[in-house]
Write a structure and sequence with these properties.
The protein has 215 residues and is α/β, with parallel strands linked by helices. It folds into 2 domains: 130 residues, Hexapeptide repeat proteins (UDP N-Acetylglucosamine Acyltransferase, domain 1, 3 Solenoid); 76 residues, no CATH class. The chain has 3 helices and 24 strands. The protein has an 8-stranded mixed beta sheet with strand order 2-1-5-8-11-14-17-20, with no helix packed on it. Strands 3-6-9-12-15-18 form a 6-stranded parallel beta sheet, with no helix packed on it. A 6-stranded parallel beta sheet has the order 4-7-10-13-16-19, with no helix packed on it. The chain is elongated. The C terminus is likely disordered.
């Protein structure tokens, strides 16, 4: 027997139990406007808020919390003890690590990976297939939807672009060769150099200061 906590429109939590499948609670889910997709797996002691949507074959770990109105995409994976904020959107196939925290109204792109214990702030955007390392605290995001791939500052002086994640220094040294492998034209190469320059300024002006603030 597994236990789950569901939240109603009055923000009150109520405990329920099911034996084999979450579909045993179909009536209670419908009352709360909660949608659970085909083949989705819900771990013991998970909490699901009012109006939340969980896609087909998604996996919600033990003790994870899904906020009101949050959307979990198909095949997405939410680790044990992870917290997904109100109205947050987790893309198809994205992976949220154990004990990670995703803020209210944040957006995680499809195929993105958020490491164990990482923290993404309210309304931050993480691009498609971006990778955020474990224990990273990204309070303020920086996301650009470029002509070829999205570019995302993912904390710790790193940038994700397409399926590549490197430090700012590594991008500066190797960007041209990576761009050639991706088939970028010279015009696109110059476009993304501007994006990397903007993110470097953002990192230097804000993130380094943030990292040195006392706890």
């Amino acid at each position: 027997m597994r236990t789950i906590f569901l939240r109603d429109e009055n923000y009150s939590w109520q405990q329920f139990q099911f034996e084999n499948s979450i579909t045993e609670l179909a009536e209670e889910l419908a009352k709360r406007n909660i949608s659970i997709g085909y083949g989705a797996s819900i771990g013991d002691d998970a909490s699901i808020g009012y109006g939340a949507s969980i896609g087909d074959d998604a996996s919600i770990g033990y003790g994870a919390s899904i906020g009101n109105g949050a959307s979990i995409g198909d095949r997405a994976s939410i680790g044990y003890g992870a917290s997904i904020g109100y109205g947050a959107s987790i893309g198809n196939g994205a992976s949220i690590g154990n004990r990670a925290s995703i803020g209210d109204d944040a957006s995680i792109g499809y195929g993105a990976s958020i490491g164990n214990g990482a923290s993404i702030g309210n309304r931050a955007s993480i691009g498609v297939r971006s990778k955020v390392d474990a224990e990273t605290k990204l309070i303020t995001g920086f996301y650009i939807n470029g002509s070829k791939h999205a570019v995302t500052y993912v904390g710790n002086g790193k940038i994700s672009c397409g399926c590549h994640t490197h430090t700012i220094d590594e991008w500066e040294k190797n960007y041209t060769s990576i761009a050639l492998l991706e088939g970028y034209s010279e015009e696109v190469v110059q476009e993304y150099l501007v994006y990397f320059s903007l993110i470097k300024q953002f990192h230097e002006a804000f993130c380094k200061i943030e990292a040195t603030e006392p706890a």
